[in-house]
Structures are given as structure tokens and as C-alpha cells.
Automatic annotation (TrEMBL):
It comes from Loxostege sticticalis. Keywords: Signal. Residues 61-113 form the Peptidase S1 domain. This is Peptidase S1 domain-containing protein. It holds the Pfam family Trypsin. InterPro entries: Peptidase_S1_PA, Peptidase_S1_PA_chymotrypsin, Trypsin_dom. Residues 1-16 form the signal peptide. The keyword Signal applies. The keyword Signal applies.
Length: 328
């Protein structure tokens, strides 16, 4: 039995410029959290945060099928092969998919295809947020695919309860800041365990785990030494309470962290968010951060994605003019 409230990861000598922010030589310390934690912030402070990429792996997740999630898709950086696998995406409307923006920043449109309902879909365009967030931790990217013959476009409905009312995630703290009876799960394409060799032919399988969505998860668990900026939406395989009372709880030893992983409300089957970031530390199962598709930025980009889809002109070239600021 441990009494842990606060994981302090001492990122000695790192300044957050690279993915090695949480490399193995950093020291890890657990300390008890001493005072009550105020999870509300009048202002976000990301001066000392680093939102590292997810490594697309799972621990103790259960297999899922495309029949259960017919709107799910795999993003691959090839026109003909199923590798290299890049991330998970979700179809939200005919020919429009969303994923973590950071997944597609480095891809070339013409090499990228989506594998959706066993069909390969060529990509017409990416829409990336014009006003990006730090390391794209809160950025959702759109993938508009070409109009290829396709049957039914299975889509997932978006979380539409609240739009953002502030820039500091207080709307999220208000909605997901107390104990909840509702449940969530995350689903996406993952390898089993973290692969130390990033071979392109790693096997990615559709898997899911139940998760807890709460404002305090990253706010409290990622209180790094001098780094207190993780007041952002996160999920984890167990509650803070379980973690505090018994960190050996099997629920706390599951993990699912894939770029674009779909966070679903199991009651409504609506998409609450897309997994975007999370630190890795050996033998620790840490929360994963996600982006909620309810920002003005998101809706603006959505309008843009629809215009690109509906455009009949020559492909390429003209798309920028379809997307100017404040389309909504
Ligand atoms: C959120 O904003 C979008 C776009 O402006 C709008 O269509 C939608 O109805 C809003 N939802 C809520 C719950 O206010």
C-alpha cells in the first residue's frame, strides 16, 4: 500500500526541446503531495511543460474489431502498403476524418492513405489548425479523402454538450472535475507493449481499454519539479483514488496511448476526444492527454474541411482560398 498523490518526475537538465524529455536517465521520485491541490487556473502556464508524443502502444488492452467501430481508420504513409502505420483516425462525416494534428504534420498528402472499412482511401488534403497549441497538444487535424466509390460512411458523433467557454480548461474542470458515474473508453491501433525498435512492420491491432476521464489526472500526477502546467484534459486506466490507495491495483496497470486514439463516452457513444500526448516512463502507467473537438479553432477548420471536400475544381492549388480565418 502506497500513499501517493503526486508523481514527481525530475527532468534534470532538460529543457523540453526534444522527445528525450523523459529519457531513461532522468530520475524518478515519488513524493507525497502536501497540500490540497487547486485544480482551477485563471491562466494556463505552459512555460515549463513538454507534451511528448505517444508511442502507439498498449498494455493489457483488449482486442476490438472494426465491426464494433466501423468509423475508425488507420493512417498509413504509403499509397500501396499497410506500413508505415502513423496513427488512428475517426470518420466524423462523409469523407472527413479527424486525428491528432501532430500525426499528420510531417506527412505528405500524396503518400498518405486511410484504411477504413477494409478500403484504401486516397487523401485529398489535410487541414491543420492555423492557431496551434504548444507542441500541438490540443490540436486536431482533419483529413479529407478523395471521392472514391464507397458504401456507407460510418461516422462517430462528436461530444456536443459544451463548447469551450474559456481558454484555460476550466470548462473541462467544471464538467470532469468531480467523481463521475459515467464511463469512457479509448480505442485505437496499438502495438502490444512499447517496442524498443521502431521497425516499420510492427503489428498494430485495434484494441481498447476502459478509462477514467478527469481534470486532476495530469494536473496532479504530472506535477514535475518546477513544472506545474499540466492543467489539461487527460485520461487514465484507473482513478486517482485507486492510484492513491493501491497503486498495485490491476486497473492502474493498463495503458493505451496512441496518436488519434478515440476517447468515447460509453453511454452516448460520442467521441469526447482524441489522444494527443503523454510521457513515457519505464514500468509506469501514466495518464494520456487528449484534445476535445469543441474549440472555435476546431469548428473553423471543420468548415474548411467541408469546403475542400465539396470543391469540384482542380485538386490542389486552390484549397487555401477555401480556408480563411473565421469561417463560422
Ligand atoms: C458549439 O459551436 C458550434 C459552432 O459554432 C455550434 O454549431 C454548436 O451548436 C455549439 N454547441 C453548443 C453546445 O453550444
Amino acid at each position: 500500500m502506497h500513499n501517493l498523490l503526486c508523481v514527481v518526475l525530475l527532468a534534470a537538465g532538460t529543457s523540453g526541446h526534444s522527445d528525450s524529455w523523459l529519457s531513461d536517465d532522468n530520475e524518478l521520485q515519488f513524493i507525497e503531495h502536501l497540500s490540497s491541490f487547486n485544480t482551477r487556473r485563471s491562466q494556463l502556464n505552459f512555460d515549463q511543460t513538454y507534451f511528448s508524443s505517444l508511442d502507439n502502444y498498449q498494455v493489457e488492452a483488449v482486442p476490438a474489431t472494426e465491426a464494433q467501430y466501423p468509423w475508425i481508420a488507420r493512417v498509413v504513409h504509403s499509397r500501396t502498403l499497410d506500413i508505415p502505420h502513423m496513427c488512428t483516425a475517426a470518420c466524423i462525416e462523409e469523407r472527413i476524418f479527424i486525428t491528432a494534428a501532430r500525426c499528420i504534420y510531417s506527412l505528405k498528402v500524396h503518400y498518405t492513405t486511410l484504411i477504413y472499412q477494409h478500403t484504401r482511401l486516397p487523401v485529398r488534403a489535410f487541414v491543420l489548425p492555423s492557431k496551434g497549441t504548444k507542441q500541438a497538444f490540443d490540436d486536431i487535424g482533419f483529413i479529407v479523402v478523395e471521392d472514391v466509390p464507397h458504401g456507407h460512411w460510418a461516422t462517430v458523433k462528436l461530444y456536443d454538450e459544451t463548447n469551450r467557454t474559456d481558454d484555460g480548461f476550466n470548462w473541462f474542470a467544471d464538467r470532469f472535475g468531480s467523481a463521475q458515474s459515467e464511463s469512457h473508453k479509448v480505442v485505437g491501433y496499438a502495438t502490444k507493449g512499447k517496442q524498443s525498435i521502431q521497425a516499420p512492420d510492427r503489428l498494430f491491432e485495434l484494441t481498447e481499454i476502459p478509462v477514467v476521464v478527469h481534470m486532476d489526472l495530469c494536473t496532479i500526477l504530472f506535477t514535475f519539479d518546477l513544472m506545474k502546467g499540466f492543467h489539461v484534459p487527460c485520461y487514465h486506466s484507473c482513478t486517482l483514488e485507486q492510484f492513491k490507495t493501491n497503486s498495485d491495483d490491476p486497473d492502474c496497470k493498463k495503458y493505451h496511448g496512441v496518436e488519434g486514439g478515440a476517447v468515447l463516452n460509453t453511454k452516448t457513444n460520442k467521441l469526447l476526444g482524441l489522444a494527443t500526448w503523454g510521457p513515457y516512463f519505464p514500468k509506469l502507467y501514466l495518464p494520456v492527454g487528449f484534445a476535445v473537438p469543441n474549440s472555435a479553432n476546431f469548428f473553423n477548420d471543420y468548415v474548411c474541411a467541408r469546403r475542400i471536400r465539396d470543391d469540384d475544381g482542380e485538386p490542389g492549388m486552390s484549397y487555401q482560398r477555401l480556408c480563411v480565418d473565421d469561417l463560422t
